[in-house]
Every structure is written in C-alpha cells, then in structure tokens.
Specification:
mainly beta; Cathepsin D, subunit A, domain 1; 4-stranded antiparallel beta sheet; 3-stranded antiparallel beta sheet; 2 helices; 33% strand; globular
C-alpha cells in the first residue's frame, strides 16, 4: 500500500508520492521534490488508467532515459517510431534482456512493472521506451495504463491508500 494524496487543484485524480526511481537495483539521484505537489497544486504523480503512456517530469525523465541508453546493450533503430526517444532493434530472435525499472513509493512499497510494460512493440522487430517527458514545468507526472498492466489496484478511499499486487489473467 501507498497513501493516496489529495490535490485541491485536481480532487478527482488519484495521486501517489514517488520517493525514488530504481533501475537494475540502483537508486537514481532524483530530487524527491520533483515528485511533490506544490503549494499551488501543481506537480505530483497521478495513477491514471485513461492515459496510455507514462509521463515523467523533465529532469527525472532525462536521467531515466540516459540510464536506459547506457544500460541497454541492443542496437537502436536508425529511424525510431515518431514520438519515442529510445527505440531498439530486436530482430534476430535473440532473447531480449532489458533493465528493470521500479518506483519506490511513500510508505515503503515498490511498484516494479515488467519491462514489457515500458518497452513496447511499435513495429516488427522494434521496441520503444513508452515513457515521455511532461511538457509543462507545472505539470503532473502520470503513471499510465501500459505501466499498470499485470497489476490489480485497490483504491481504498476510506483509508486514503492505494493497494496493488501483481495479477495475471490466464486461462486454466
């Protein structure tokens, strides 16, 4: 569980507090204030099933992107799919190993989606990083529905908390 935060500027959204981002068990040096809701109600991080991609505040996004570029040992695509900053050539049938991304949340919980939640197939033999920068300096980060796949979420409004666990849909 992680606490659900209230933002008077946007009371209909579900906000959570990111404490840190981890890639391959290494904490990235991202100022925690980047994830906070300011006194005017700007910023913060929303969990939104109506948004497809995940959007992160610019400084965090740039560091995460640079870290993925450094760690990924696959060739990049010469002409990546429009709108994506990192696209990989995954042709050849080799087993693709991608870095693990996790979000440490308020309350000590860790949200660790599968790499297939943030490296998506955009065309035959191409996977792209499904993260985007937030374009406005006062905008909120958004954990979109691709990142949420494979999890069950419990929005416990009475206790002001969000519970989540891995859940797969399979046919017996």
């Amino acid at each position: 569980y992680t606490p659900l935060l209230t933002n008077p500027l946007s009371p209909t959204f579900y906000y959570v507090r990111i404490r840190n981002v981890v890639i391959n068990n290494v904490n990235l040096r991202i100022n925690p204030a980047l994830w906070a809701i300011d006194e005017l109600g700007n910023g913060g991080t929303i969990l939104d099933s109506g948004t497809t991609l995940t959007y992160l505040v610019q400084p965090a996004y740039r560091l995460i992107l640079a870290t993925f570029k450094r760690l990924v040992k696959l060739p990049t695509v010469a002409k990546p799919t429009l709108g994506f900053d990192l696209c990989l050539n995954v042709t050849g049938g080799l087993r693709v190993s991608l870095p693990r991304l996790s979000f440490k949340l308020e309350g000590g919980s860790v949200f660790s989606p599968s790499p297939s939640n943030y490296f998506i197939d955009t065309s035959e033999g191409e996977k792209c990083l499904a993260l985007q920068p937030v374009s406005s300096p006062t905008g909120s980060s958004v954990i979109g529905n691709l990142m949420q796949q494979g999890f069950t979420f419990e929005f416990d409004k009475d206790m002001s908390r969000l519970g989540f666990s891995r859940h797969t849909c399979s046919v017996p």
